[in-house]
Specification:
This protein is 25% helix and 26% strand. It is of the alpha+beta class. Helix 5 packs across helix 6.
């Protein structure tokens, strides 16, 4: 059981409820806080500290070691009768202290919370109204994101349940009785989440049975994979629909189906070409910001390749290289779309 009796502490510390080794105290050389890489390692390091080491380590060093932040808040940010709150686990935790809490009681409150920290997420309260429920209810008007569809004008409920959520994008599958969602995605912010990444805008992708939170760049990469998947599904459907008696225009002898036979020569097959327009204010050699042309050269084996040129430089892409460039371009377009959406967001005060 934790000792809660008031004891005498060294002059360099505020009065504390923790156990303190008797004087005299040998000089301690303060080392830089350790940085274990795993939660289990961090907890083991904390548990290996002796009572004396824990008591004599300055509170700011303990906070850095254990991955805990302390914020002093106005009294109305906490439930009535609560003067301190702990939320999180070792490595990712936050302590709120009421500004009305006497200065002499603040460090003891922090050390009490640190003494109970573990690898499991938990919410702990300190004060006359602290109960085993470890939650608090508020009634407030919340500042919202412009994409949030939740009603936060007059929110009443547990503060831990507050969440900002956008409308959903859904991938539907047609069935006999109607469309059924296969995947859906939405933007989310959990302002009181224990994980730092949950407290900033991120995407949630779900299939109704499992949920995958994604950072914004991860979501863009996922969208690029979906685009590749869509192309593969489309190709499979076309392949499955093909039949031997399908009427397809036959290419002229010695040419590919995509050949512009009027432009082909004996050694070169010329196919479709696309030249990306150059945006105003940007200069590109030969007006080639990005130019792609399908062709084949008999002297180089006769295999179809895409000639990709940009600003006077070019290269030939085989099938594998073309797939890689397509995936990169799709990721670029997805990223630019995300940036375009962010352009209309207002600057925070």
């Amino acid at each position: 059981m934790r000792n809660t009796a008031q004891t005498t502490v060294p002059a360099t510390f505020k009065p504390s409820g923790g156990i303190v080794a008797p004087a005299p105290v040998e000089p301690v050389v303060e080392a830089a806080p350790a940085s274990p890489t795993a939660t289990a390692d961090l907890f083991a390091a904390w548990q290996s500290m002796t009572v004396r080491e824990a008591a004599e380590t300055p509170i700011d060093q303990l906070l850095i070691l254990l991955g805990v932040t302390v914020t002093e808040v106005e009294p109305d940010a906490l439930q009535d009768g609560i003067n301190a709150r702990f939320c999180g686990r070792i490595g990712f935790a936050e302590i709120w202290l009421s500004r009305t809490l006497p200065q002499a009681d603040r460090e003891p409150a922090v050390r009490d919370f640190l003494a109970t920290i573990s690898t499991d997420d938990r919410i702990l309260l300190r004060g006359a109204a602290a109960t085993p429920h470890l939650v608090r209810q508020v009634t407030a008007r919340l500042d919202c994101y412009d994409w949030c569809v939740e009603d936060h004008d007059h929110y009443t409920g547990h503060i831990e349940d507050i969440s900002h959520t956008s409308s959903q994008a859904a991938l539907m599958v047609a069935e006999r009785h109607g469309d059924v969602p296969l995947l859906h995605a939405y933007i989310n912010v959990d302002p009181f989440g224990t994980a730092p990444e949950s407290r900033v805008p991120h995407l949630i992708v779900s299939d109704e049975t499992e949920t995958w939170p994604m950072p914004l760049l991860g979501a863009i990469e996922f969208a690029a994979q979906l685009t590749v998947f869509a192309d593969e599904v489309r190709a499979l459907a076309v392949r499955a629909a093909g039949r031997a008696d399908d009427t397809v225009s036959s290419p002229e002898p010695g040419h590919f189906p995509w050949c512009d036979t009027g432009a082909c020569t004996t050694n070169e097959h010329v196919g479709p070409e696309f030249n990306m327009p150059v945006p105003p204010g940007l200069h590109a050699e030969h007006d080639e910001l990005l130019n792609a042309k399908l062709g084949a050269h008999e002297e180089f084996g006769g295999k179809p390749e895409i000639s990709l040129s940009s600003n006077g430089e070019g290269t030939l892409l085989d099938v594998a290289a073309a797939d890689k460039v397509i995936a990169d371009l799709e990721a670029t377009v997805a990223a630019m779309r995300a940036m375009r959406a962010q352009m209309v967001q207002g600057q925070q005060a």
